[in-house]
Amino acid sequence: MAGSDPAIREAPAPDSVKILIAGGFGVGKTTMVGSVSEIAPLRTEEPLTSAGLGVDDLDGIPEKHATTVALDFGRITLGRELVLYLFGTPGQQRFWFMWNDLAIGALGAVVLIDVRRPESSFAAIDFFERRDIPFVVGVNGFHGRHPYTPEEIRDSLALPAGTPVLLCDARDRASCRDVLIGLVDELIAGSAHGGGTGRPGRAG
Amino acid sequence: MRPFTLTGGRTRPSRADFTLITSVTAVDPQPERAARPQPEHARILRLCAKPVVVAELAAQLDLPVSVVCILLCDLLEAGRITARAPRPISRTSDMDLLQKVRDGLGRL
Ligand SMILES: Nc1nc2c(ncn2[C@@H]2O[C@H](COP(=O)(O)OP(=O)(O)OP(=O)(O)O)[C@@H](O)[C@H]2O)c(=O)[nH]1
Ligand SMILES: [Mg+2]
Q1: Could you say which of A27, A48, A197, B80 is the most buried, measured as most Cβ atoms within 10 Å of its Cβ?
Q2: pLDDT tens-digit readout, A48-66
Q3: How many contacts (CB atoms, under 8 Å) link A and B?
Q4: What digits encode the pLDDT tens for the residues A75-127?
Q5: Which CATH number among 2.40.10, 3.30.530, 1.10.10, 1.10.3470 corresponds to the domain B3-106?
Q6: DSSP H helical segments within chain B, as ranges?
Q7: A102 and B20 in contact by Cβ < 8 A?
Q8: How far is it between the farthest Cα atoms of chain B?
Q9: What is the ipTM score, two decimals?
Q10: Which terms are listed as keywords in the entry (chain A) (predicted)?
Q11: Between B64, B89, B92, which is nearest A196 by CB?
Q12: Chain B residues whose beta carbon lies within 8 Å of the beta carbon of residue A18
């Protein structure tokens, strides 16, 4: 822990918090981070090569030309004392070893799914469910189309009852902000119900 | 420049407690009698004249986070920077923090 080292001080007040943007390969994570970040998304990308990737991964994703091999990084200043950092997790399976590190200290996660192939985000949902990390599901409608209701998606993903499912457009800033708000509202509701304060939970 | 030349052949940070959102700031003024910093160290010192988090530093330097952490360890040991860890998150008792995040997002 950092606490034992006098040179690495604990912050006296909350100043940096982190939310993960997770999900399968090519579902729009980098796009979402870029849409809400106040800085151009910082990231390392590498041209997609057939050497490192099963060719079938690309079927049905004509927009896909590059894949993220490190992490996306975005910043949202929420006030003088508080900055929210967004980290897009790498989508390709061979980089999933990074998720554990990224998850440490995160408030929670948005699991983004591509409405045309939701199964590509199953593993991400499992990851957060198993670790008991709070998450909401953001349904990226690609081309703005949302053929399914949130309830239909919740059923087809076999999500625990009450897991928020939010329809969104990863290219749209307000839409992405609303997904983040959905996550924080869920965290607040969970915090109120989770106890620790002795106060009864309140709805809303 | 190859990462290992920057870090003197070391492959692992000696301070694993630099997280992605640990904020670092150059000490001002810099310690007296300190040796002239190496070029990469000097770049970091310029970039963190104001507080900046590790992930952002890595992105700006275009270096892997692990390499940046090693360079930051050097600077920390030399007394050239201070580092501030994020407050640990506790799921049940941080209503105040969550509400601040919520309010901030609502104003966007
Ligand atoms: N039409 C449309 N294209 C999108 C949308 N979201 C993302 N894209 C495109 O789809 C491709 C993949 O999006 P990315 O944001 O790179 O996806 P990713 O999840 O970061 O991908 P990996 O990091 O490689 O897993 C990019 O070319 C985007 O421009 C969308 O809502 N509509
Ligand atoms: Mg990406």
Answers
A1: A27
A2: 333 344 444 545 555 555 5
A3: 137
A4: 999 988 889 999 998 877 767 767 777 888 899 999 999 999 999 899 999 99
A5: 1.10.10
A6: 3-6, 39-47, 54-61, 65-77, 95-106
A7: yes
A8: 49
A9: 0.78
A10: ATP-binding, GTP-binding, Hydrolase, Nucleotide-binding
A11: B92
A12: 20-21, 86
